[in-house]
Amino acid sequence: MASRRDKKKSPSDLAESTQIDFDALDEFCAGIELEDIEFDKWCDHHNSLDLEISLKVDPQEARHGCIKEVELSRAVTETVGDEAVSKREKIKHQIEIKPGTPNGHRITLDGYGDKEHGQCGHLHVTIRYA
């Protein structure tokens, strides 16, 4: 008895399996929304040291206020001798969610973004109701 691995696929089998893959890809891509953005604007955004994250908060917690801890990693680039050396650094920070904070509210934390040669970006935290 031949195993599945030993069985060779005919050209029609390959075409059918390829079509199935394209159908799955089309279905996957249909759920993706792309932002129309100019290249220069994209470069400005991606050259920034700022980081953006979403923080899930229960609506009850947001109504009464709470403290949430976020943990993330940021890029740190330093000059060592004549070379720029990059590494990842894990950071934790407690964020105060004030009573009545609405869904979509954005909190900015200065100095918690990526770090490059002594300069730090901001960490932008968007509150999302879970």
TrEMBL record:
Span of domain Chaperone DnaJ C-terminal: 51-128
Superkingdom per UniProt: Bacteria
GO BP annotation list: protein folding
Alphabetical list of Gene3D superfamilies matching this protein: Urease metallochaperone UreE, N-terminal domain (2.60.260.20)
InterPro entries assigned to the protein according to its UniProt record, in alphabetical order: DnaJ_C, HSP40/DnaJ_pept-bd
A Pfam family this chain is assigned to: DnaJ_C
GO molecular function list: unfolded protein binding
Protein name as it appears in the record: DnaJ C terminal domain-containing protein
Organism: Pseudobacteriovorax antillogorgiicola
